[in-house]
Amino acid sequence: MISDLWYKNAIIYCLSVAGYMDANGDGIGDFPGLMRRLDYLHGLGVTAIWLMPFQPSPMRDDGYDISDYYGVDPRYGTLGDFVEFTHGCKQRGIRVIIDLVVNHTSDQHPWFQDARSNPESTYRDWYIWADRKPPNADSGVVFPGVQKSTWNRDPVAKAWYFHRFYEFQPDLNTANPHVQAEILKIMGFWLQLGVSGFRMDAVPFVIARKGAEQKKPIEQYDMLRGFREFLQWREGDAIILAEANVLPRTDLEYFGDDGDRLHMMFNFQVNQNLFYAMAAADCRPLVKALTSTRPRPATAQWGNFLRNHDELDLGRLSRSQRATVFNAFGPDANMQLYQRGIRRRLAPMLQGDRRRLELAYSLLMTLPGTPVLRYGDEIGMGDDLSLPERNCARTPMQWSNEPHAGFTKSDSPTLSVISQGPYGYEQINVAQQRRDPNSLLNWTERIIRMRKEVPEIGWGDFSVLPCGTPEVLALRFDWRNNAVVVIHNFSPEPREIELEVKTGQTSERDLINLLAENHSQANPDGMHSIVLEPFGYRWYRVGGLDYLLKRSEV
Ligand code: NOJ
Ligand code: CA
What is the phi/psi pair of residue 387, to 5°? Predict the structure, then answer.
């Protein structure tokens, strides 16, 4: 295969305009502000930006409640500013993907307003209605503890409407061909303005059959092929990155057996088991997750992540595994959310321990797939647990030790920066870390650079190398006549491992360390014995550094 599918080896960085940089001083981040930070992102080395929703919205779910799909919320700027932004990214070789939130609209969207006020409205059938309260109205809520039901009665419509998420987010009737056509139109619009694809929100719900009579969700996977075809006709290299927290047995339904559906999915399976591995120093379930998510078409890719803008969802772990992770990383009730997850940022979860942060990020960079970073994690930003639900991990970017972390000149910003304690902006900020060669920021920049020099990870086939202890994970990637081996020690103790690395029948003598001077030479019997420090990690190239000369064309 020709290796020009950009997403197979991208470094994706997710950010919200609201929290990044405020240029006009009204206390809310905006596109002109983000523009001024593009050189920072370019310098950091990210190759794609995933923008959280920025369309007009009543903002009751941080923009995931859209009231106009074809605009920019005036608080953030104008469509003109948006196009300046996509152009600025293009000039720097950075791609932009944006959220596509079409499972539901805001209840303030004119479609819903028209639909509810007039039974004859053409938009009536764009939503899901019932005359009476459906028997399953209290089940299937996504935000238990906050959301009470999935059906509400609308006094204007005098009918019940379905909402998978909060009650102000009525679900679109995605089976309606007019709604489907509109979804394509929305994609076409933003493609024309310079984006390279979409992070599609809540995909399993978008494609589920909806209605009062539905007992269990039945997914209509064929819809995905329709989205894909349209996208590829309009823009050859545009992609869909799906938010779909599903079981491995349905992965191929989402990717399509022939790679004819979604290009990318977030690997929730690996994400949850990775946190278990870090909490328990036991990689076995992680290995299982890696193996069970291995099958995928050659053109498809996993998006790997540590934390995102939502809670760390642990719903797919066993009860006792989940308890282990809660215990280690979110013991207080206030740190947990929706009875299934942890709402903290990564750095405080790992107690700011630099060794563990590096371990986590080194892993993120070397898991099979493409890494997706969250803004602020490159400097180890913390959270503000006094904020409700997931807002605790959505505080503004900490740029400097100036007032409000240099995020805004306003005295009363809408989002307040973290100003107290070890994660306050006077301790943790970009300006300071940029000057310190040993900072997490500069470490992240270097690890990104190295990740770009190891395309084997994004493109290659991986295998798990036996190394004699469940506390250590050793992965090998093979691609075009080259191989790399990456090793991570999850234990707080040093660990010595024995490893054999073969090419065909021959044991490889040299493992060249890509991050430090300590290379490894095999013993006469062909075994490498490697001592890893507590939470230590290694990236090795197999054989010499002449790998580029050895790389084959196919
Ligand atoms: C998933 C998003 O990640 C989350 O933030 C949002 O609340 C729901 N979808 C509803 O749109
Ligand atoms: Ca502003």
Answer: -85, 150
CA distance 230 to 235: 9
pLDDT at 356: 98
Are the C-beta atoms of residues 127 and 228 closer than 8 Å to each other? no
Does the beta carbon of 282 lie inside 6 Å of ligand 1? no
The verdict on the CB of residue 207 being under 6 Å from ligand 1 is no
- Angstrom distance (rounded) from CA 163 to CA 96: 29
Residue 76 pLDDT: 98
Cα–Cα distance, 510 to 543 (Å, whole number): 5
d(CA 394, CA 344): 10
Residue to probe by mutation, ligand 1, list 201, 307, 390, most atoms within 8 Å of CB = 201
Determine phi and psi for 463, rounding to 5 degrees.
-135, 155
Q: What are phi and psi for residue 358, nearest 5 degrees?
A: -65, -40
Answer for the pair 157, 128: CB distance below 8 angstroms, yes or no.
no
Low-confidence stretches of the chain (pLDDT beneath 70): none
- Give the position, in ligand 1's atom list, of the atom nearest the Cα of 390: 5
**CA pair distance 254, 223, nearest whole angstrom:** 10
**3-state secondary structure at position 256:** coil
Burial of 527 (0-12, 13-18, 19+ CB in 10 A): middle
- CA of 143 from ligand 1 middle (Å) equals 10
Pairing of strands 370-374, 301-305: parallel
The two tokens of residue 115 are 């639909």
Q: Cβ(244) to ligand 1 under 6 A?
A: no
Give me the pLDDT at residue 483, please. Answer: 97
> Which residues are known catalytic residues?
201, 243
Q: Does residue 61 line the site of ligand 1, with CB under 6 A?
A: yes
* Nearest CA, atom 6, ligand 1: 64
Write out the H or E segment, with its range, that includes residue 265.
Answer: strand 264-266
Helices (H) and strands (E) in the chain, counts: 17, 24
* Nearest atom (ligand 1) to Cα of 310: 5
Residue pair 518/531 in contact (Cβ under 8 Å)? The answer is: no
- Predicted local distance difference test score (pLDDT) of residue 472: 98
Q: Which of 95, 234, 112 is nearest to 171 (CA)?
A: 112
Q: For ligand 1, say whether the CB of 311 is within 6 Å of any of its atoms.
A: no
| Ligand 1 center–CA 299 separation, angstroms | 27
pTM for the whole structure: 0.98
Under DSSP, is residue 329 helix (H, G, I), strand (E, B) or coil? helix
- Distance from the CA of 75 to the center of ligand 2, in angstroms? 6
> What pLDDT digit, counting tens, does each position of 368-403 carry?
999 999 999 999 999 999 999 999 999 999 999 999
Question: Which atom of ligand 1 has the smallest separation from the CA of 103?
Answer: 11
As to burial, measured by CB atoms within 10 angstroms (0-12 exposed, 13-18 middle, 19+ buried), residue 279 is buried
- Looking up tokens 């929703």, which residue turns up? 53
243 CA to centre of ligand 2 in angstroms: 29
Distance between CA atoms of residues 240 and 223, nearest Å: 13
